[in-house]
Write a structure and sequence with these properties.
The chain is mainly alpha-helical. The protein contains 22 helices and four strands.
Length: about 500
């Protein structure tokens, strides 16, 4: 690489950090970088310039031009010997289609980008693709699938220590929880998002955290707290001229006014939301606004206005559905939608297998639930000669149990067994009893106390750990649960 090429590459790296804050300025500078790259025959520099230009267009909502630039980058990439830029190019294709509300095409490109990012080990693009696919499923009303995909994006970002992407994924996961009416979980996820984005400069994300927190508090009917949160979101949106957030914060404040039985104020706020959303939205936000307008008009006994608003809501909703249907019809030459979704799920499960607890791959002392109970019965029959104890970990959140499994595994010997007995229990069958078992139990208790749970985004109560004699331990999971119920009673 000669001096000119090295200088261009350094300049492009610096420009990348300013895209979100100054997209118009960066677009002009990057066009000059493209011209200079072509002059010195630096093809990789030209491709990177086109990718940055496409990102600028995405931020400026000029999706047609963005698509033009990224197609040119794809064409040039195909002439190189390396696939280094391909995952990001495919991801940028998907973003432009997502901006145009062409969800089926966006889904195809994100699946292809996910495959390529696995081959080139590009973790950032992998997380971006998981976020994108989760968004597709949210907008097509597959809320549980969206939620599990965004949960995986959070996990991969957390393991990879990419804070800004973890924050982004958490905000979208909170949206999924909102649509599933899980407001308590929403607040927990948003606290994690605030921590992850503490030092990030993107004001849109900070405004979104407060806006979604306000929605969660509205769902829990904590109206005073919700008012403070939505006001913070709205002030951030106005201060930094965040167009999307302005529209969304108006909707949140209108919901608050409706709960307080002030339909006139709610109507005014929704009018402002509609004016703001008309500048950029393709239906998702406008359909929400019109639906809220119909509810407010009905509350105000304005049934004619409610009907007009509901008709507009149906118009936007049907428009979005028609777009999805058209994309399926236009792409008959490609795989069917069902096959495409199966491919996406296979890829997601493969990534989940890399980052989630997998006994067969990582933990040699972890056995199946059936084998564990068989060994229990076998050791029970030894009666006085039995030399085993049971250490039980209990917690309703599987993330805590995964960590308990990892910690317990570090203390295992050849004759010990660990198993996940249920969604809330992990049991260690220890080949020790008496004082030795008590020492291991105390060591595990201390390890759980000093474990930095917050680094994994876990802020709830710690797991319950108990030491049990194998001879008095129940024979089945049902008996174990019955015993727990009796103790609680």
């Amino acid at each position: 690489m000669d001096k000119n090429q090295h200088l261009l590459e350094t300049e492009l790296e610096q420009l990348k950090t300013r895209i979100d804050s100054e997209p118009s300025v960066i677009l002009e500078i990057t066009q000059q970088c493209l011209f200079r790259s072509e002059q010195v025959l630096f093809e990789e520099g030209a491709i990177q310039s086109l990718m940055l230009m496409a990102r600028c267009c995405w931020n400026l909502m000029d999706y047609q031009k963005g698509l033009k630039y990224i197609k040119e980058a794809h064409k040039r990439q195909s002439q190189l010997d390396t696939d280094l830029f391909l995952p990001e190019i495919l991801h940028l294709h998907a973003l432009q289609f997502w901006g145009q509300a062409k969800y089926y095409s966006a889904q195809q490109y994100w699946i292809n980008a996910l495959e390529q990012s696995a081959l080139t080990d590009d973790i950032e693009i992998q997380i971006e693709c998981l976020i994108g696919l989760g968004n597709i499923w949210r907008i097509t009303h597959e809320y549980k699938l969206a939620c599990s995909t965004h949960q995986l994006a959070v996990k991969v970002a957390n393991v990879s220590r990419i804070g800004w992407l973890e924050g982004k994924a958490r905000i979208l996961l909170a949206w999924d929880y909102y649509l599933l009416n899980n407001y308590v979980q929403m607040l927990s996820v948003l606290d994690g998002a605030e921590d992850a984005l503490k030092y990030h400069k993107d004001n849109t994300w900070h405004a979104e955290v407060w806006d979604f927190r306000g929605l969660a508090l509205l769902g829990l009917e904590r109206l005073d707290d919700a008012e403070k949160a939505t006001a913070k979101a709205h002030n951030l949106a106005i201060k930094h001229n965040l167009v999307w957030m302005k529209a969304h914060s108006y909707i949140s404040r209108a919901r608050l006014e409706l709960l307080r039985k002030r339909p006139e104020q709610a109507t005014e706020l929704l009018k402002l939301a509609e004016l703001s959303a008309n500048e950029f939205d393709n239906g998702e936000l406008l359909s929400q606004i019109c639906y809220q307008q119909s509810l407010v008009a009905e509350e105000n006994l304005d049934f004619k206005g409610a009907l007009v608003a509901f008709k507009k809501y149906r118009q936007y909703s049907i428009g979005m559905l028609r777009e999805q249907t058209n994309r399926v019809g236009l792409d008959k030459a490609r795989s069917s939608k069902r096959q495409l979704e199966q491919r996406a799920r296979k890829l997601i499960n493969r990534i989940r297998g890399q980052h989630e607890y997998n006994p067969e791959k990582h933990f040699s002392y972890v056995v199946s639930e059936t084998f564990w109970w068989e060994q229990l019965v076998l050791f029970k029959t030894e009666l006085k000669r039995s030399n085993h104890s049971i250490i039980m970990f209990q917690h309703p959140d599987t993330d805590y149990l995964d960590i308990c499994t990892e910690i317990a595994h570090t203390l295992c010997n050849r004759n010990d067994f660990i198993s996940r007995l249920s969604s809330e229990r992990v049991a260690l069958m220890l080949s020790e009893k008496g004082h030795a078992a008590e020492q291991t139990f105390q060591t595990l208790s201390t390890m759980l106390e000093i474990y930095p749970w917050h680094r994994k985004g876990l802020k709830g109560p710690q797991p319950i750990i108990s030491l049990n004699d194998i001879l008095t331990f129940p024979f089945t999971l049902e008996q174990l649960e019955e015993d727990d119920t009796e103790v609680q009673s």
